[in-house]
Amino acid sequence: MTAEPKSLMVSVTGRVQGVGFRAWTQREATRRGLVGWVRNEFDGSVSALLEGTPDTVDAMVDAMQCGPIGARVDRLSSMPGAQTERQGFDITEPDF
Predict the structure, then answer these.
(1) Catalytic residue list
(2) Using alpha carbons only, what angle is made at residue 30 by residues 26 and 35, rounded to the nearest 5 degrees?
């Protein structure tokens, strides 16, 4: 029996822009088989939509607590996200 997909919206604050956080997130999410997106926000944070198996999404959130070398995560918050029909994991632009 396959677990229902889990979808989370994640917001990360700290030194997370200008340190390769989005590219790292895209690589890690793709490697883990997740779908979704990651983007910089105007307030200096990074947001991501993570979708996949519950264990994989949880492991990605754990990894995002540290991020890539050079990043400093001060806070990571998450809330349930809407499931999508996305294929792959993209770096996107913020909503205006």
Answers:
(1) 22, 40
(2) 90
